[in-house]
Amino acid sequence: MQRGRTTLIAYLCLAPSAILAAGVIFYPILRTFYAAFCEVDRKGNPHAFGTLDNFRAVLGSEVFRNQVVPHTALWTVAVVGVTITLSLFIAVALNERLPGRRLMRAIVMLPWATSLVISAAVWKWILHPTQGPLNRLLEGWGLMPYGLAPAWLARPGMAMAAVIAVGIWVSIPFTSVVLLAGLQSIGDDVYEAALIDGATGWRRFRHITIPLLRPVLLVAVLLNVIYVFNSFPIIWTLTEGGPANQTHIIVTYLYQTAISQREYGQGYAMAVLTFLVLLAFSLIYTRLHSREGLQSE
Amino acid sequence: MRYWPVVLLVALFALIFAGCPKPSETPTTPATQGAAPTAGITTLKFLAMEYDTNTRPFMEKVKQQFEAANPGIKLDVEIVDWNLGKDKLATLVSANNAPDLANIATLWLPEYVQLDAVEPLDSYITKDMRDRFLPATLHGAEYQSKLYGLPIAVSARALYYNKDLLAAAKCQPPTNWQELVTVAKKCTNPAKGVYGFGVQGSKVETDVYWYYFLWANKGEILTPDGTQAAFNSPAGVEALQYVCDLIDKEKCTEPEPTAYDREGLQEMFKSGKLAMTITGPWFWKMLKKDVPNLHYGVAPIPGNKQQKTMAVTDNLIMFKSCKDKQAAWKFIEFFYKPELRQQWAETFGMIPELKSVAGSDFIKKSTEWTTFLKLLDSGIFVPLHPRWTAIAKEIEVGVQEALLKQKSPKAALDAAKVRVDALLKEPAADKPAK
Whole-structure pTM over 0.90, yes or no? Predict the structure, then answer.
């Protein structure tokens, strides 16, 4: 009886959050799936169920296939890849007993404390061709001829590079903190044993740190891929997907198509596609790595 | 006693839930949200797009005067920036939570009419009131033979030039394309960061900046029946090639136009780094306020085969979902009193839409206003079509591709034509909105 009452209390406590989650998360997802297969009117309301037209429109769009999808892949791989690499080294550095370590940790956390929109807005100003500090600095150091410093956000290739750089900048704090937490859970005795066996710094890193960090790395990569794939504020604030669709990723293209141009049907279809891609990635990735993890134990 | 934490938690969440409106509930009149409704008081919600920093104080004044003259009506004005306002209005209308009144770009009108969201004003407006308006300004408000709004901001575009920079280069303001090249080149001095002519390549109205040249070359955006794109004609390709040459061959524009939106060019002009740029009547008010020492001049946009400008209106519209349309109409009548329209024109620098205001001494004495009123006569309105937002975006992409040298002007315009033609066909396949 005691057990039953405890269980009941547990369910009662969980109920409000569960209802909230169901209403705010699951209901919209289910409705989106439903609407993606409907004819959707200009206000976004789904009508007749049972059509693949929205998907046909999305996948048939040349801009979507040849620009948006490759950009999304490039954006995700570049931002996550570089973020993980840099964050790993930052986490290792922050793990060392160096003076000013607390201050450094606080500074690394700062980009995370500001909203993405504000960070992106500030970077937009920094990258301004004539009035931004970056070009002024480069000219002052003699790295750029005066008056010819590029407009970072206006040239096709450069715009992508610039938004990727800002994406990396905002992703580093979270990833560093996660990896640092993982590093700190590795006991000193493992390293001491390795030292006694004569392992150099690099070998210690490769054969002790990385394998023991694997579960944390798994989580970091997974979360980063999901956040970055769907990251709207940075690209939208910096370039709105331009110039000429050169920096559009799926989520920004979705916003432009569905909200600005009232093609809600295509928006639903894109949302479903994104969901399926990320779901597939999450399942495959976790399956791959947990199996590896078990084998190496 | 054991249960009290549970009870507390559940009570807390119940309170939170009670405060949230359920998605299926359509909100009643705005008066029921927030302040307690007093019997007999109507609240009108006005979503006002912001023209400049004067918008807020001006609307405050209007609100006070209107509420004093109409004790039973409260005016609730929400001011948003244009870019955000467009999306916000779109979302509100989709959520069946439209405001009662809003000022919108005429280009958006067909879209909202198609959604059956706009209240036609034919049954409210008297013939006398209608006659008060300059006929050209009603152009955008009349759509599919109904009057869907009243013009609130009328503009024609002109060439602004920096008198000092032109005088230093011993030039007169250009009147045609050849002169534009010569003057712009003479005024360009990259070492000082000064450039001759500003070309816009980013954000809203990038396509419009090219229309100035398209129309000057006797090109058209669409065929006369409006069913196909006509901008990739030889005249159009030539016009786009001219703009690209200004940037690459003649090097008399700011470098990297795709980095500059309209505000960017205006800021550059204000800082004295740009000798010429094309923009609208609000700009001279900004110049007088922000940089009173800058000597500017206003001239017609240089033509080639003809001299044309773009005429644009914004409209004040009433939404069908408005609960008290009589009150909303009272506000519209109040808003269009000549004194108020005169103050509006004086504050924002827009071209007046009422005949009486246009003929007033204040307007007639001002060179800027007289120039703009005259330009309105040679103004072309951009075509009205429900999918215009998407169409403009496709043309913008085409223009940007040519500016970035990713495609030749002909290739870029041909590609844009394909996309625009597809969009023009769409209304037939559209589902009616519920």
Answer: no
Confidence of residue B415 (pLDDT cuts 50, 70, 90): very high
ipTM above 0.85?
no
CA gap A120, B1 in Å, rounded: 52
Say yes or no for a CB contact (<8 Å) between A130 and B401: no
| Distance in angstroms (rounded) separating the CA atoms of residues B257 and B253 | 8
Q: What is the CATH number of domain B40-155+312-376?
A: 3.40.190.10
Is the pLDDT confidence value at A259 over 90? no
Q: Could you tell me where in chain B the CATH 3.40.190.10 domains are found?
A: 40-155+312-376, 156-311+383-429
Among A43, A150, A256, the residue with its CB nearest the CB of B433 is A43
Percentage of chain A beyond pLDDT 90 is 46
Q: Is A214 helix (H, G, I), strand (E, B) or coil?
A: helix
User: Residue A96: what are its φ and ψ, rounded to 5°?
Assistant: -75, 150
Tell me how many domains chain A contains: 1
Domain at A98, CATH number: 1.10.3720.10
Residue A231 within any structural domain of the chain: yes
pLDDT digits (tens, 9 = 90+) for A182-211: 988 887 888 888 888 887 777 878 888 888
Q: Which helix (H) or strand (E) element contains residue B75?
A: strand B73-80
- Residue of A43, A117, A127, A236 for testing the chain B interface, max B β-carbons within 10 Å: A43
Instruction: Note whether residue A42 is domain-resident.
Output: no
Q: Is-contact B75 B334, C-beta < 8 A?
A: no
Q: Which CATH class is domain B156-311+383-429?
A: alpha beta
Mean pLDDT of chain A: 88
Q: Which stretches within B132-253 are classed as H helix? A: 163-168, 177-187, 206-216, 234-248
Look at residues B175, B113, B145 and name the one whose alpha carbon lies nearest to residue B300: B175
Residues of B in contact with A156 (CB under 8 A): 404, 406
Residue-wise pLDDT tens digits, B140-176: 788 888 999 999 988 899 999 999 999 999 999 999 9
Which residue in chain B has the smallest CA separation from A10?
B6
Q: What are the tens digits of pLDDT across the range A175-184?
A: 999 999 998 8
B395/chain A closest Cα distance in angstroms: 10
Mark yes or no for CB contact A146/B201 under 8 Å.
no
Torsion sign over Cα B199, B203, B204, B207: positive
In angstroms, the separation between the Cα of residue B66 and the nearest Cα of chain A is 33
Smallest CA-to-CA distance from A212 within A94, A296, A282, A92 is with A296
Task: For chain A, say whether B433 makes contact (Cβ under 8 Å).
Answer: yes
| Whether residue B429 has pLDDT greater than 60 | no
Cβ-nearest to B115 among A42, A148, A245: A42
A249 vs A232: CA distance, rounded Å: 9
Residues of A in contact with B112 (CB under 8 A): none
CA dist., res. A68 & res. A73, Å (int): 9
A-B Cβ pairs (cutoff 8 Å, strict): 106
Q: Return the DSSP state at B195.
A: E
Domain assignment of residue A57, yes or no: no
Could you list the residue range(s) of the whole structural domain that residue A153 is in?
73-296
Structure tokens at B122: 């034919």
pLDDT digits (tens, 9 = 90+) for A121-174: 999 999 988 778 898 888 888 887 766 678 888 888 889 999 999 999 999 999
- For chain B positions 395-424, those within 8 Å of chain A (CB to CB) are 397, 400-401, 404, 406
Position A213 in a domain: yes
